[in-house]
Amino acid sequence: KTNHKGRSMNAFDTQLVRKKHGVSWNEEYIIAMVANDEGINTMRVLKIAGLQKVMSPATAHKYLMKAVDKKMLSNKQDKEDLRSMTLTITAKGRHFLEEIRNAYNRK
């Protein structure tokens, strides 16, 4: 990926924003995934993270729950699969991602 100035984007560019919010790169990945697919369920997040070989489903679950605990994401019982939760991004999560985008664009 590149920003609008053609510069390569990487996790280092957003390190200060993540540190400010107490969010890891893994949490950033999951928050962005939910933002791109509002209403996605937990099972799908875990599956995608594993298929993309970003992190194991167990690790993805750990960081997903941390993002929920930090109120970056909200979850509610999935009506179709009671073992799963439906995820949505919160205003706090949207603000965080906006700061991430701004950090990429400043470089």
Low-confidence stretches: 1-8
Shape: globular
Oligomeric state of shown chains: single chain
> In total, how many beta strands?
2
Q: Order of helices and strands, N to C?
A: HHHHEEH
Range of helix content: 40-55%
The N- to C-terminal Cα distance equals 13 Å
Biggest sheet: strands, sense, closure?
2 strands, antiparallel
Give average pLDDT, whole number. 85
Gyration radius, in Å: 14 Å
How much beta, percentage-wise?
Answer: 5-15%
Report the structural category: mainly alpha
Question: How would you describe what is shown here?
Answer:
The chain is mostly helical. The chain is 54% helix and 9% strand. It is built from 5 helices and 2 strands; from the N terminus they run H-H-H-H-E-E-H. It has helices at 15-21, 25-36, 42-51, 57-69, 91-106, and strands spanning 73-77, 85-89. The protein has a two-stranded antiparallel ribbon with strand order 1-2. Strand 1 and strand 2 (85-89) form a beta hairpin. The longest helix is centred in the last third of the chain and has 16 residues, at 91-106. The protein starts with 14 loop residues before the first helix and ends with a helix. Mean pLDDT is 85; it is low at 1-8.
Give the helix/strand layout.
Blueprint: H1 15-21, H2 25-36, H3 42-51, H4 57-69, E1 73-77, E2 85-89, H5 91-106
Antiparallel strand pairs: 1-2
Helix pairs in contact: 2-4, 3-4
